[in-house]
From TrEMBL:
InterPro entries: Glyco_trans_4-like_N (IPR028098). One of its GO terms (molecular function) is glycosyltransferase activity. This is Glycosyl transferase. It comes from the Bacteria.
Length: 364
């Protein structure tokens, strides 16, 4: 079976969707020999660099094309078909909302969330275009993959799709998280970070709700000075968001190994998002044994460890109270082990198996 995936999210620094594509490709590549897969990776870019460090057995294919141009064409019609850009393929998997029309290939598209329709005020024009692109894809009969059961149900309802048209393929946790060594005092001191801290990992995307988190953290510290300082990591650690005070620290960009250390050494991880498709940081934190404060969203109840603290993301008072509760959670050996066991339910091999089954299954 010839399978081509859109690997554009692998270009540049890899955030959530880039990690998804990276790990899915690697897990599919591990199955390529036994399952007879011919794996290819394409990108939509005109000036960008080509793909590098692809897994063994995955080869880059396709022409250089301007992403904005082809996406605009696909919002209006069904040309160009993907085979003219990447060559013959049995399946084309649009990994990031964008699914090109095909001549004969099975069309598969991952819809990570419905932020573009549920919180349009938080996204840019390119993301708003997903509404038309996804609608056109499902009208052509594309199979939709989602990172969670919650998003699968929402997509079925939004586009009035039958059950077999939408397949949840829950994300996994890289095994390195389970072996993460917590940050040492010397490591923290070198980076001017406090010995005790809560951590947020994510972007400055408005849906991540950093403004309310920062207000809630100030309020929680006033109510209970034992609430630790807050560390912002990932893209959010590169630029100073509005509202940062003396008890908030930015890390700059971190390597994977350093991010594992930072999260593994935290008193707790906070994910106050207005919307999520999966919420990978809460599962990664659980893999290190770290407790979590998460938004009171169905998808985070689906994936967060059972002892997680939840708070309404649009309520600063609720978030502040959640931070106080998170800081007060006992870090026992048994509790940490239970979180790791929970996180172990989510694997990239399982994600790849569910994805491959969707590639192969004929819809009724």
């Amino acid at each position: 079976m010839r399978i081509t995936l859109d690997a554009t999210p692998l270009l540049g620094r890899r955030t959530g969707i880039g990690r998804y594509v990276e790990q899915l490709l690697a897990a599919l590549a591990r199955r390529s020999g036994p399952d007879g897969l011919d794996l290819r990776a394409s990108t939509w870019t005109w000036r960008g660099a080509g793909l590098s460090d692809l897994p063994a057995g995955v080869r880059p294919v396709g022409r250089r094309v301007p992403a904005r141009l082809v996406r605009e064409l696909w919002t209006r019609g069904d040309l160009p078909v993907v085979e003219t850009l990447v060559g013959p393929t049995d399946v084309f998997h649009g990994t990031n909302f964008v699914s090109p029309p095909t001549r004969r290939a099975r069309e598969v598209v991952t819809v990570h969330d419905l932020t573009y329709v549920e919180h349009p005020e938080t996204v840019d024009a390119a993301t708003l275009a997903y509404e038309r692109l996804v609608a056109r894809a499902v009208a052509r009969g594309a199979t939709v993959l989602t990172p969670s059961q919650t998003v699968a149900e929402a997509v079925r309802a939004r586009y009035d799709l039958p059950a077999d048209a939408v397949v949840p393929t829950p994300l996994g946790v890289d095994a390195a998280w389970f072996d993460a060594s917590p940050a040492t005092p010397a490591w923290l001191q070198e980076r001017d970070l406090p010995a005790e801290y809560l951590v947020f990992v994510g972007s400055l995307d408005p849906r991540k709700n950093l403004g309310r988190l920062l207000a809630a953290h100030r309020q929680a510290r006033l109510a209970d000075p034992s609430v630790p300082a807050l560390v912002l990591a990932g893209p959010a650690g590169r630029a100073t968001p509005e509202g940062v005070g003396p008890d908030v620290h930015l890390t700059g960009w971190l390597t994977d190994e350093d991010l594992h250390r930072l999260v593994g050494g935290a008193r707790g991880l906070v994910l106050p998002s207005l919307d999520e498709g999966f919420g990978l940081p809460v599962v990664e934190a659980a893999a290190t044994g770290v407790p979590v404060l998460a938004s009171d969203l169905p998808v985070l109840h689906e994936v967060a460890a059972p002892d997680s603290v939840f708070a309404a993301p649009d309520d600063v008072d609720a978030l502040a109270g959640g931070l106080v509760r998170l800081a007060g959670l006992d870090r026992t050996t048994a509790a940490d082990a239970a979180r790791r066991t929970w996180a172990g339910r989510f694997t990239w091999d399982a994600c790849a198996a569910a994805t491959l089954a969707a590639y192969r299954t004929e819809r009724s």
